[in-house]
Amino acid sequence: MAFVGTFTGVTARAESRRGLLSTARPAVSSSASSFVAPSALKRASVAKHAGGMTMVEAADTVVPAPLLKQTGDDFKDMCINSIRFISIDGVEKANSGHPGMPMGMAPAAYTLFQNYMTFNPKNPNYVNRDRFVLSAGHGSMLIYSLLYLYGYDSVNMDDLKNFRQLGSRTPGHPENFETAGVEVTTGPLGQGVCNAVGIAMSEAHIAATYNKPGFDLVDNYTYAIMGDGCVMEGISGEACSLAGHLGLGKLIVLYDDNNISIDGNTDISFTEDVGKRYEAYGWQVIDVPNGNVDTDAIAKAIEDGKACTDKPTLIKVTTMIGFGSPNKSDSHDSHGAALGKDEVTATREYLGWEYPEFEVPQKALDHFRSKIDEGAEAEKAWNAKFAEYKSKFPELGAQFESCVLKGELPSGWEAELKAYGEGAKANATRKLSEASLQVLAKTIPNWVGGSADLAPSNLTIMEGYGDFQKATPEGRNLRFGVREHGMGAICNGIVLSGYNLLPYCATFFIFTDYMRASMRLAALSQVGVVYTMTHDSVALGEDGPTHQPIEHLASYRAMPNINMYRPADPVEVAAAYAVGVESRKTPTIIALTRQGTKKLENGSYEGAKKGAYVLSDNSSGGAADLCLIATGSEVDLIVDAAEELRKSGKTVRVVSMPCWERFELQDESYKQSVLPDAIPLIKRLSVEAMSSFGWAKYAGNQVSIDTFGASGPGPAVMKLFNMTVENVVAKASAL
Amino acid sequence: MAFVGTFTGVTARAESRRGLLSTARPAVSSSASSFVAPSALKRASVAKHAGGMTMVEAADTVVPAPLLKQTGDDFKDMCINSIRFISIDGVEKANSGHPGMPMGMAPAAYTLFQNYMTFNPKNPNYVNRDRFVLSAGHGSMLIYSLLYLYGYDSVNMDDLKNFRQLGSRTPGHPENFETAGVEVTTGPLGQGVCNAVGIAMSEAHIAATYNKPGFDLVDNYTYAIMGDGCVMEGISGEACSLAGHLGLGKLIVLYDDNNISIDGNTDISFTEDVGKRYEAYGWQVIDVPNGNVDTDAIAKAIEDGKACTDKPTLIKVTTMIGFGSPNKSDSHDSHGAALGKDEVTATREYLGWEYPEFEVPQKALDHFRSKIDEGAEAEKAWNAKFAEYKSKFPELGAQFESCVLKGELPSGWEAELKAYGEGAKANATRKLSEASLQVLAKTIPNWVGGSADLAPSNLTIMEGYGDFQKATPEGRNLRFGVREHGMGAICNGIVLSGYNLLPYCATFFIFTDYMRASMRLAALSQVGVVYTMTHDSVALGEDGPTHQPIEHLASYRAMPNINMYRPADPVEVAAAYAVGVESRKTPTIIALTRQGTKKLENGSYEGAKKGAYVLSDNSSGGAADLCLIATGSEVDLIVDAAEELRKSGKTVRVVSMPCWERFELQDESYKQSVLPDAIPLIKRLSVEAMSSFGWAKYAGNQVSIDTFGASGPGPAVMKLFNMTVENVVAKASAL
User: Fold this and answer.
1) What ipTM, to 2 d.p.?
2) Inter-chain residue contact A241 with B541, CB threshold 8 Å
3) Is residue A143 part of a domain?
4) Residues A650, A582: one domain?
């Protein structure tokens, strides 16, 4: 059995892996050795009594105490320990959180922020700032510590003391919508580094589109810190493979290789060669064997990362989780819980930290805060450059200002989209989507997107707008490969890049299952991605039940803050895209048919934008005998069924309901105008080639499919599941 | 822009990549050259007129025609082409499907099945058979062709002719529940190879548990074919990294490296070094540069794979998609659509195939069918070995027979589980789950499982049953690492391994989003995995909205064939696990609290197994004034609220409803006994700290959470969202 016990001593293997002894520079060794001895003795003693599986043999064997080695530069240590102890104290006060990662990565984070990152604490949205993503979001106190120390207004001392408390700006995991300076919402592992790929893609695209000789309007770097968990998640492999393919030279990821995850030592499940894997992806890989102390090596690695312009860089920073904690470092014990009062005291003693909780030495704080002026200067210089750019390139400058800086939509985009929908002939809604995408491509310059290797099926190519490839990042068609989850997270990054790009992405509707975690994060972090999801029901036919959505509409209707559209015809498809474009803080899924549909006689653009509307009603007082409600391709069924039913003398209301969420946003009188109480639930029939789940709210009766689908030609499958006019008429007649 | 056009000629690069010219062995070249010339001329001519982006210059330049090189062994070519043309004809008749992969991989599949795999066509369930997984499930005609040719009863000529038709045993993608001989359901990319990892883990575990010196009861290999799509999907990276860690020497995966995906040439999105990546995972990687013709190299690679006992093997078989089709090979055109009548004719001509559609030369068929006797002999020999084993090791032999062969559950397991539940004290339901797992570990020897690196939080370790590691595959605790999606697919493979193992797996409930595609495949392919999902509501507290499920219960309640349990106390937790264990064809999710819960006074094991039951009712005639319904931790709320409401003179029915799906399976009279029509919807209130979505079916009013959660201590968050007795009383009083 692999060694999984709490680390209370120093195994030769762990020691060697971390390179704590072998790689320390002479200056560090001598500096550190001056205050090693007493605690080293103490530490060995602790090890002896703690019952660890492998330990230093005896208290009287004086072992060099690697935990005590700091950088050898007293002031640098003070700054790094400022980050460590704010993180420690924040977690301690909350009695909840993850101190270990910030303790281990404080030297790397300090080196990065202090010496390499350009940012303006007083304007977190400065457009050419370097971006930082904490992919290992559980280490949130690291970013909160940095934001506080560098003088962001979003995190003050009270926020630090209210870590993980209701209403604070320092929630358990970083949330972009709560805390300025937090670029993306992280926590679910692997997502952040993929967001970073999306941000770096955005930078490359905007730079290629707007930069001119002598005018590097946009030239920032995207940095991320990820941990073992991020690396293990498949999503990160997807996006990082694509990042390598695209040669994103301005993406630099620090991998906190601390050998510890929640189950204990990663030896029990994760022994692959990560560096080699990233080389296989086409990345530059740089090892920093002793990230606990060797800030020079960290600095050199970042510089080498910046120097490599045609590949992303992975810096493998080998650290000890919980560095500085004599009894909990290098152990899962320091990962996800407060260290505890005694251990905090012991850690203060170990690191020679004489300051009370939450106190930062003024000298260090002044040093951190010097970045405020530096950042303001950087932005000022950029503003001057942009003014000159505008005068030299007035048209492009105006576009940059409007589209990139302000995120404005060009006038006329919606009129053109609506006109297209109203003028278009019937077709499969995926074909109508394809045409809508051409309109948007033409009218909105920052509209970009693509498919996870289903472009010829999803019909998502914007003709004439080029592919985003390594040599052509100005291309607006994104080629994600068969990487749905990575695609979802990349699109979140594109939205949150700060360049106001509007991305759409696509796969078969069923394969939203592969990217659901990213879609939920879009909804949670208020990110207006548009999801073009074709092949939206069993009517897709032959591919069979592995490819036929059943529960998918319901599963997204249940999710907060996401528009689930299923349009029926050209007008409704155009309306769905319009909502998607306008909804900058709400993602929009558009489910589209493989098969042909009719054009509705009374299809309404405005009605579809409102989520539901009346297509026809042959009653006089608004209290029809029956109400038929459907979405997408099944609207054709209820239109035809109503005609049949009316022949037998019934009054029937026909409602198209492409988006429940939008309907729920309307006022009560509108809702009553569509689904009046005068037609009780038992007189309403919903028709959808999908699970009935959730429909009970709007209709007491359903024509639906509550089992998995079947392989066969589409029309035969629809008939098999009774998705026919005859069946709708029969069911409705029986009400 | 990368070259993505239809392949109508031979680019030097593609040629070099495939090694068609450079690696053909002399024997092959000379043999093939005897019938190259005329068609080569013709082919060049075709290229000239097809308008491809890069093409052979002119018809009068005689170019060696690589498409025509076959293996050089006429009989072998006949057998391989039998596979090719059944696949071509099946897709053609259906006018739907994927001919390209079977055409390219026929040589590899033939070599594998004919020369290396042990199987018994007349008993597809022969326990020690080698397993084969077609991870690239879209190439389903390949496996159907093989099953037909080797004489499986499950696929006859009519089935081949009814490919992708309703009710056939040859659906669009392979489905284990439709077609004997198909081990797992594939199609959604990446899943199959992960299933194969699970199968190989099962083999290793069963072998370590039961094999004795001289008695290798179980020693089969697991083979898989995956394509570029499978390799790109993150899920495959997760499972293959774990497979490398575990050193699964009996897992051999053939990677169909054909450079084509749906968007065109993989150059546009997928240029990583796959072999190097798999080496980084700890795999042996073997290149077969010319998989189109070089069956000797394929054979050698398989042998080398078998010889390497401590690592899984990836055989990178470079092929040309649609091999043999003069105008559609090496192009996405042969990937996902019928070749078309003319091209089928051209392909017949190219490959010298003189037989009409669906006809297999008798000589070839006899050859394939010889495996019937061979397989029967193998099973007979195994039966004899097992008889001897039983006599030497009667206890273990009996256990193997009962647990592994018959899949019986040992007597007494449920009585012990129920007794535990009824005797246990209140606790967080995740703690009660932990205790239930110990009971199951003790009573069911084939109960195995673990967590995606959250064992200390999910509380899923079976104490005393060891870790499954490379050196200890007999261990029953699985350490998945932070790989939820891989975990889900591996568990599907474990169930479908044919060894009747019963797996559970675990993560936080929210992270089912990462593994949803695998869970859906469990439901679809009738696989009884148990999902132990802790931290099931906003009450988990500080981790905040990224970790707090809202829509998750609804999203699984909407999915067909999956039990969504949310038990409230020890009795219900035990009942949920009992249903999970019994439901061999339906997966079961058990959502569990982080926080403490009370023990219900009238908690009913049988009631919980039925999905819903009455906890209390102070009315006389069964028509209480109000009915309160809840699940999990909120049952405590309605119990207390009912007490308050009754004080004010109301009659109140209190219903615990841990599993909707099980409730719906009960007969009408039972359902009425729990939720009688006498209490109308408007008098019913559901209480669940989760989305209200779907509840309208059972209750007209909800106390629910229809937004994302918040970070703060659990009780504070519950209060913030009005999950209090006071609020339930107020809401109920207003009805």
Assistant:
1) 0.93
2) no
3) yes
4) no
